[in-house]
Write a structure and sequence with these properties.
By secondary structure, this protein is mainly beta. It is built from no helices and 11 strands.
Length: 125
């Protein structure tokens, strides 16, 4: 019954910024470990970032985005965010948010049991 909807994607020049949002319909959003993944054309889906449940005090990032991307959550709004700064052309991909079935932070795709529809991010040079 939980649904995830991403938004905020678009076209941006290299060095620019975007903020992605993922709105969840569940009433127990604060209990969810959440993650962001991305999939470039003809490539697999890769981990980007994750955030623990409740306060979201623990976060994890792929090395490729560390220092540039920030994941956060607003439990009152049932929303998780991905702030993307200093964007590079190689960041171009469809970005997906997902809910983990675990209660601990994880970067393993198989630990996520609910996915959004994805939002396109295109970074031009």
């Amino acid at each position: 019954q939980v649904q995830l909807v991403e938004s905020g994607g678009g076209l941006v020049q290299a060095g620019g910024s975007l903020r992605l949002s993922c709105a969840a319909s569940g009433r127990t959003f604060s209990t969810y470990v959440m993650g962001w993944f991305r999939q470039a054309p003809e490539k697999g889906r890769d981990f980007v970032a994750s955030i623990n449940n409740w306060s979201g005090s623990r976060t994890s990032y792929a090395d490729s985005v560390k220092g540039r991307f920030t994941i956060s959550r607003d439990n009152a709004k049932n929303t998780v965010y991905l702030q993307m700064n200093s964007l590079k052309p190689e960041d171009t991909a469809v970005y997906y948010c997902a809910k983990s079935k675990t209660t601990w932070a994880t970067n393993s795709m198989r630990d996520y049991d609910l996915w959004g529809q994805g939002t396109q991010v295109t970074v031009s040079s």
